Amino acid sequence: MLTALFEKLGFYVLLMQKVLTKPQKWSVFVRQLLTEVSKLGINSIWIVVIISFFIGAVIVVQIKLNIDSPFMPRYTVGYVSREILILEFSSTIMCLILAGKVGSNIASEIGTMKVTEQIDALEIMGVNSANYIILPKIIGLMIFIPVLVIMSMFFGVIGGFGVCIIGDVMPADTFQYGLQFFFKEFYVWYAIVKTIVFAFIIASIASFYGYTAKGGSLDVGKASTDSVVMSSILILVADLLLTQLMMS
Prior knowledge:
Helix content is 83%, strand content 0%. It is mainly alpha-helical. The protein has one domain (25-247). Helix 1 crosses helix 6 (129-165), helix 4 packs parallel to helix 8 (185-211) and helix 6 crosses helix 8 (185-211). The longest helix is centred in the middle third of the chain and has 40 residues, at 76-115. The protein is elongated, with a radius of gyration of 21 Å.
């Protein structure tokens, strides 16, 4: 098992060496990049908005119910909700969700190209297939996932306001004061840096499993599943390491 792990690690490093090179034609690369941003990023906006809105509302309700104490100021609900959304939910949990949606899409797409010998055809024509197929996906995700995370923070806060106004959980002005209380801009930059790293993990790991897929359609499905599992594990490990490095 350990031998297989190191073997996969070696294949991954060799693949990234092929991927992270200068594109053969910049015009083709830019066109591919815009396509990937639209396909992987813009098409994910709806799920980010819906999940963030309702999770933001649920966080506010749960915190209000669990820390409702005369010894604790009411604006604490807004403060704690903001910290949860910025530090972990929008940056880490949302990337885990995107690893399932976007990562499986990348792995299955590249895996299908592999088993149908489209990648072999590119290699025969003298094209660096790894760079041509994978690099636009990695760069596209690293550009757009931070945008999705900022949107997640925004709509999470909107969900909190919505449950305060519609559900009458607490006064909206008190919630707003809690959101503004002792705000640290660094936390937003910390979340963005994390998501850029997570975007690279999602795209590169999914591409690796798709690029190394062998066999038929069942193997493509297995590669897609394995990519989501491995991406999720590595995101959690990277989250721990980055938190230790940037917050300590």
